């Protein structure tokens, strides 16, 4: 019983560490000896807390560039690289949107819903220290802008990131003449809007155990119990997006309202005149906020008119990732389901997550200046 209790108090999955290219790089850490006390291993399983706990091993993630996993006991919390911002603790799945957005070095990028800034700083790291590009980071909530500013400063990304504080992305207007050298030039857009947070699992204790099997064939609604107990998640406090009166709404109504907002934000991004690539992500396990939002967005007139599609060949490093969208929730469209990535809570390395990539089809892309 004692062993069981001490094991439930252990962190439940590996610690994920993203290398910040603005202050360090993979070569320096892994090949030139900075992390020489850690030996690389190929088996992520071994970094889950078990009897063969391995605090001196490191796993290099094949799916996300510059991402490493360590056993939760690895001595990293006070590591000097953490203090200087050269490494960032970030959940594995949360690194996937920027990895899939894959902006070229000098790209103009939007992070539409940016605070607390994990993905903004990841995008800055991907652009890198020599970039002439720019990231426009929108954050509507004034209180959360502070955290965003701090994250950008800690990452040394101030020169790359232009924060648009307290601005609703849905009101941004790239077609305004004042945006001629700003939003109008944006080609890549990352959308990580508020969601139910039903995929959030805590590192250090069981808050809830998902009973649904995201990604499993035939899955429709994960059990209701999987939504409960997530009110402390960082994004689950954003219910105001669900519109007035959300507090009295049932869980289903809330999900519908969130989904409505999520479709609107994708639609707005699709209107950016020079955009060619959009990622949409949630930390929800519900198809209602995931595949069904993707399908609704693809069926909007702006998507059809401007040639926005989803294609599995755009999944770059994740093209062999085994867990995809749920086909039934994509109205049986396998190509759309295959273009969506799902992360199952715990077993896939951390929180439950969903990411889809939209691209503007070749014909449309050829028409862009
Ligand atoms: N991408 C962030 C990260 O990885 O650190 C997390 C984003 S969190 C899920 C969603 C954020 O979007 C919240 O901070 C919320 O205040 C903001 N938000 C919601 N609706 C927005 C809107 N219409 N315009 C701008 N920001 C919005």
From TrEMBL:
Q: Which residues bind S-adenosyl-L-methionine?
A: 139, 192
Q: Name one GO biological process term.
A: rRNA base methylation
| GO cellular component terms given for this protein | nucleolus
Does the record bear RNA-binding in its keywords? yes
UniProt keyword annotations, A-Z: Methyltransferase, RNA-binding, S-adenosyl-L-methionine, Transferase
- Region annotated Disordered sits at 209-245
Residues at the active site: 283 (nucleophile)
Drop me one GO molecular function for this one: RNA methyltransferase activity
The residue ranges of the SAM-dependent MTase RsmB/NOP-type domain are 5-361
The answer to whether UniProt assigns keyword Transferase to this entry is yes
Tell me the protein family, please: Belongs to the class I-like SAM-binding methyltransferase superfamily. RsmB/NOP family.
Write the protein's name.
Answer: S-adenosyl-L-methionine-dependent methyltransferase
């Amino acid at each position: 019983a004692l062993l069981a209790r001490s094991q439930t108090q252990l962190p439940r999955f590996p610690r994920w560490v993203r290398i910040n290219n603005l202050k360090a790089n993979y070569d320096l850490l892994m090949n030139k000896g900075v992390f020489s006390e850690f030996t690389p291993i190929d088996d992520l399983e071994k970094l889950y807390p078990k009897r063969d706990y391995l605090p001196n091993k490191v796993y290099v993630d094949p799916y996300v560039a510059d991402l490493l996993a360590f056993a939760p006991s690895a001595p990293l919390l006070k590591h000097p690289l953490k203090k200087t911002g050269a490494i960032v603790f970030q959940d594995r799945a949360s690194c996937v949107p920027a990895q899939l957005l894959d902006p070229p070095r000098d790209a103009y990028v939007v992070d539409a819903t940016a605070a607390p800034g994990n993905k903004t700083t990841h995008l800055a790291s991907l652009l890198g220290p020599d970039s002439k590009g720019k990231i426009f980071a929108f954050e509507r909530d004034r209180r959360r802008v502070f955290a965003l500013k701090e994250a950008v400063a800690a990452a040394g990304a101030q020169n790359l990131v232009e924060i648009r504080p307290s601005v609703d992305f849905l009101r941004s207007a790239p077609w305004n003449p004042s945006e001629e050298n700003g939003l109008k030039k944006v080609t890549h857009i990352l959308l990580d809007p508020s969601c139910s947070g039903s995929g959030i699992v805590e590192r250090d204790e069981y808050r809830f155990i998902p009973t649904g099997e995201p990604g499993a064939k035939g899955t429709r609604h994960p059990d209701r119990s999987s939504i409960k107990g997530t009110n402390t998640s960082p994004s689950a406090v954003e219910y105001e997006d669900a519109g007035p009166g959300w507090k009295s709404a049932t869980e289903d109504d809330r999900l519908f309202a969130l989904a409505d907002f999520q479709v609107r934000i994708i639609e707005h991004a699709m209107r950016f005149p020079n955009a060619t690539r959009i990622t949409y992500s949630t930390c929800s396990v519900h198809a209602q906020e995931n595949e069904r939002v993707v399908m609704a967005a693809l069926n909007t007139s702006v998507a059809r008119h401007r040639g926005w599609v989803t294609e599995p060949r755009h999944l770059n490093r994740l093209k062999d990732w085994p867990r995809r969208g749920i086909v039934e929730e994509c109205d049986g469209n396998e190509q759309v389901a295959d273009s969506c990535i799902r992360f199952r809570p715990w077993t896939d390395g951390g929180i439950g997550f969903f990411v889809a990539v939209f691209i503007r089809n070749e014909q449309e892309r050829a028409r862009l200046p």
